[in-house]
Amino acid sequence: METRVSCQDKEVVISSSHPTVLIGERINPTGKAKLTAALQAGDLQIVREMAVTQMADGADILDVNVGALGVDEVSFLPKAVSAVMEEVKVPLCIDSDNPKALEAGLKVYKGKAIINSVNGQEYRLQSVLPLAKDFGAALVCLAMDDEGIPATADRRLAVVAKIVERATAMGIPQEDLIVDCLALAVSADSKAGVVTLEAIRRVRDEFGVNQTLGASNISFGLPERDVINWAFLAMAISTGVTCPVVHVSKVRAAVLATDVLLGKDDYSMRYIRAYRQRQASTK
Amino acid sequence: METRVSCQDKEVVISSSHPTVLIGERINPTGKAKLTAALQAGDLQIVREMAVTQMADGADILDVNVGALGVDEVSFLPKAVSAVMEEVKVPLCIDSDNPKALEAGLKVYKGKAIINSVNGQEYRLQSVLPLAKDFGAALVCLAMDDEGIPATADRRLAVVAKIVERATAMGIPQEDLIVDCLALAVSADSKAGVVTLEAIRRVRDEFGVNQTLGASNISFGLPERDVINWAFLAMAISTGVTCPVVHVSKVRAAVLATDVLLGKDDYSMRYIRAYRQRQASTK
Asked: Which residues of A touch B263 (CB under 8 A)?
C-alpha cells in the first residue's frame, strides 16, 4: 500500500517496498526550553533553522508542532507551517492536539500534508477525521483511546480497527492512514518493546497500512539511548514501520543500514552516499 | 528448546527465552596475519590472550579454530583447546574443517562442547554426525551442501531439513542442533540480508531449534561495517538467532539493547551493568 504526500514541488511515496521515509521530529517544543521560549515570544527563527538542519541531515518529511504553554496554536501553527514552507521544499506533518489548529495549518499548506494525529477517542474521531477527508490529507492514527495506551497488542489492534472502520465509513482511503502503534519506555516495563513489535507485525499483516513510530520514547531512562533506539528501529522497520518520526541526524545511518539489509537499497547506493556526505562534512 | 553446553565449572543455556548467548569469534586465523604466523610457529600465547580478552568483553562461549596453511590441526587443535581451558572457564565451540581434528579436540575437552560444524555434504554428515553422537556434543549445522550456499531460503531450509533428519536418525537430540542459516555480503547481492532473515524465521517456525550466525560477513565491502552488523544482529535475533558468532567487544552493547527490547533483560539490568563496566574501563 502506498501513501503519497507532497509539497508544491515534490512528492514522497511511503510504502514497504520503498526506502524508509524519515519524519524529522525536532520542530516540537516538548522538552526544549529554548524553542519553547522562542515560540512563546512569537519568534520562528529557530523553527526555520531546524527545518534547514533536518533537511541537510536527510529528513524526507518534517513534523511541525508548536504546542507550548501560552502559544495560541490556532493562529501560530499556520505561521510556523508557512515559515517552514518558505525555507524548505518538503512535505509536512502538521502536528497538534487542537483540531482547530490542525485545520488552520492545513488551510495554509500547499500540497498533501500528513495530519498528526487522530486516536480512538470519540472527540478526536469526530473532529479530526473530517479534516483528513476535507483536505485530502494523510492521517496518523495512534493506537490509544480514552483509557490511554493499551498494555496489550490485542487491545492496540482493537483501537486501530476502530479508527480504520470509522475513517473508511467517512470515505478516507485506507492508503492515507498511517498507524502509530506507540512505544513506551522499556525501562519502566520490560514488555514495552515486545508489545509494540507484536502490534506492528499484526497491523502489517491484518491491515497492510503504512506505519510510523515515535521511536525515541522506548529508550527513556536508559544510558546510551542511541544504541537502544538503533536496535529498536531496525526491528520495527523489519516488522512493518515505514515512516518513523525520529531525530534524523542520530538515527539515519542505522536506518539506511536497515534498508540495505532489507533489500531496499540497490547496490547500497544510499547507504554509501550518506556515509560519504558525513565524511565530507566532518573534514 | 534449550541447548545446554558446559565446561568443567559452568553450564550455558541457549534458548529463545534466555538472554542472547555470544560466541566469541576471534580465535580464528582467517584474515589475521599475526595469529596465523603464531599458529604456524606453534605459539599459543596470542590464543591465550584472545581468550582472556574476549571473556573480559563479555563472551559466553569461545570459538577455537586454528586452521591455517602449514598447521597440523589434528595435533594442534587439542593443544589450543587445552590452552584455552587453562586460561578461562567457559564452554568452547571446537571449530575445524577436518573431522579428525574435531575428534582430537573433543577428546581433550572437559564438558559438553559445540562442534563447528556439519553441513549437508555427504562426507561431512558421515564424518561429523558420529562425533556429535559419541561425544554428546552440540552441533552447528550450516545451511549449505556440495553445491555451496543456496541462493534461496527454500533451498537453505531443504538442507537444514536433511541435516536434522540425518541427525535425528542417528539419535542426536534436536535440542543439540544449532542451525546457521549463513549470511553472505549484502554489498555483492542486495537480497542477501532478506534471504538469510527469511531462512532464520522459517527455521524458527518449522524446527524451533537454536540458531547461530556468523553475522560479520553481511557487511563485507561496505563502510562503517559496525552499523550494518548492529542492525543485522538486532533483526536476526528478533527473528530467531539465539547464539551469534561475533566480535564481542564491537557488538555486545547492540545485542544487549536488543535483549532489552525483546523482554529478555528484566529491569535492563544486564544492559546497565555492561554500560557501567565500559564507563569504568575507559576512565
From this structure: 190-191, 193-194
Decide if A172 contacts A115 (C-beta within 8 A): no
| A282 is a domain residue | no
Q: What is the mean pLDDT of chain B?
A: 96
Query: In terms of DSSP H, where are the helices of B139-224?
Result: 153-169, 192-206
Structural domain total, chain A: 1
Report if residue B236 sits inside a domain. yes
End-to-end CA distance of chain A: 41
Name the residue range of residue A115's domain: 3-252
The C-alpha of B124 sits at a distance from chain A's nearest C-alpha, in angstroms, of: 31
Q: With an 8 Å Cβ cutoff, are B230 and A275 in contact?
A: no
What is the ipTM for the molecules in this complex? 0.92
- Look at residue A125 and tell me if it is in a domain: yes
Chain A residue nearest residue B273, CA to CA:
A223
The number of C-alpha atoms within 13 Å of B157 and in the hemisphere containing its C-beta is 16
- Mean pLDDT over the full length of chain A: 96
Distances (CA, A) of A164 to A172, A209, A281: 9, 10, 44
What percent of chain A is modeled with pLDDT above 70? 100
Best residue in B232, B261, B264 for a mutation probing chain A (most A CBs within 10 Å) = B261
Query: How close are the terminal C-alpha atoms of chain B, in Å?
Result: 41
